[in-house]
Design brief:
The two termini are about 20 Å apart. Strands 1-7-8-4-3-5 form a 6-stranded antiparallel β-sheet. A two-stranded antiparallel ribbon has the order 2-6. It has one domain: 3-Layer(aba) Sandwich (Chemotaxis protein chec), CATH 3.40.1550.20. Helices cover about 35% and strands about 30% of the residues. A hairpin with a 2-residue loop joins strand 7 and strand 8. It has 5 helices and 8 strands, in the order ββαββααββαββα. With about 140 residues, the protein is an alpha+beta fold.
Length: about 140
């Protein structure tokens, strides 16, 4: 399970160092292999390969009415491996899609991670907080 937020910097080649707490889980469950793809919220989804394979199969099974979303998720998927220096390379296409420049946020989301441009994530979080709790959380105990 992935959780927590990490502020990371992309280098000039589009690589970022995966935090040790996530790297250890990825090494144990996926041999360092990841798949990145677009998320509709404007970030990137980062899946350990076995988790990606389950997600990919669910998306591939969607009806023709969801063909556009199949293209978004499957057509933009990129397989990557964590290198010997504990970095992963984010392709120029995916960096552009998520507006990634240098400062990023890597968020643990349980079975996968999300990679956000730091400023875009701050704006997204502020928007979410301004909306107040959705009905599904009204009876949730903190």
């Amino acid at each position: 399970m992935f959780q927590g937020a990490s502020r990371l910097a992309l280098d000039a080649k589009g690589r970022l160092t995966v935090p040790a707490r996530h790297r250890d889980v990825i090494a144990a469950t996926a041999g360092g292999q990841l798949t990145l793809t677009k998320h509709p919220a404007g970030c990137l989804l980062v899946f350990p390969r076995p988790v990606w394979e389950g997600f990919r199969d669910k998306v591939a099974a969607l009806p023709m009415a969801a063909e556009g979303w199949k293209r978004v998720f499957l057509g933009n998927a990129m397989d990557v491996e964590i290198d010997g220096a504990s970095r992963l390379l984010v392709s120029p296409e995916l960096r552009a899609a998520a507006g990634l420049a240098k400062d990023t946020m890597l968020l643990g989301m349980g079975s996968h991670l999300e990679l956000w441009d730091a400023e875009r994530y701050a704006a997204h979080e502020a928007q979410v907080m301004a909306q107040g709790l959705p009905e599904a959380l009204q009876d949730f105990s903190f």
